[in-house]
């Protein structure tokens, strides 16, 4: 009886040692338990044809005719599971799409970075180089991230109605120019009593047609 108890105690101790060694092996990098980054975008057991582009690999053909329907043979990446229309698990499938490069997509199919360092109100309108990324569910040829020249189109929160109201009521004191961040012009109007009224009338007209805008070059809201 005593011998059986000693044997059971030694067995428990051996199991603890083996458990410790297995955990140490995993933590030391002997066995990778990392989940691939693309798995965060890949729904489990969803339709293969609806998988995001990051979840699949396709044999594309760049000689297709632009704007025409085209089919490509695709396979899912490791650890990704999907089904066909009959809810059967698949590793490979045929993807139907339109032949076009990513930079040829309509603006609704990608997102671009914005810029607040360019003049949105200028003649001619300024452009800036934006970095655009195709949306996950959209399939296209070529790089999914690309540069594109876009018109400056940002706002600093200045309201056109507020600027016009200040120009009509307090324009003689330069309130409209102060509101738009043009403090030099505001001081000039203040100490000249609105240019004896002439400057005030001109600003009402110029702000009314949108020719005079915020000093930071942004658009009105």
Low-confidence stretches: none
Structural classification: alpha+beta
Q: Helical residue percent?
A: 25-40%
Q: Quick one: overall form?
A: elongated
Q: What is Rg?
A: 32 Å
Distance between the termini: 88 Å
Rounded mean pLDDT is 82
Major beta sheet summary = 3 strands, mixed
Order of helices and strands: HEEEEEEEEEHHHHH
Number of strands: 9
Number of helices: 6
Estimated share of beta-strand residues: 15-25%
Give the spatial strand order of the biggest sheet: 1-4-5
Could you characterize what this model shows?
The chain has a 3-stranded mixed β-sheet with strand order 1-4-5, with no helix packed on it. The protein is built from 6 helices and 9 strands. It is α+β, with helices and mostly antiparallel strands. 17% of the residues are buried. The radius of gyration is 32 Å and the shape is elongated.
Blueprint (SSEs and pairs):
Blueprint: H1 2-27, E1 46-47, E2 56-59, E3 69-76, E4 82-83, E5 89-90, E6 92-98, E7 110-112, E8 127-134, E9 145-151, H2 160-170, H3 175-179, H4 183-191, H5 193-196, H6 198-208
Parallel strand pairs: 1-4
Antiparallel strand pairs: 2-3, 3-6, 4-5, 7-8, 8-9
In short:
This protein is an alpha+beta fold and 221 residues long.
List keywords for this structure.
221 residues, alpha+beta, three-stranded mixed β-sheet, three-stranded antiparallel β-sheet, 9 strands, elongated
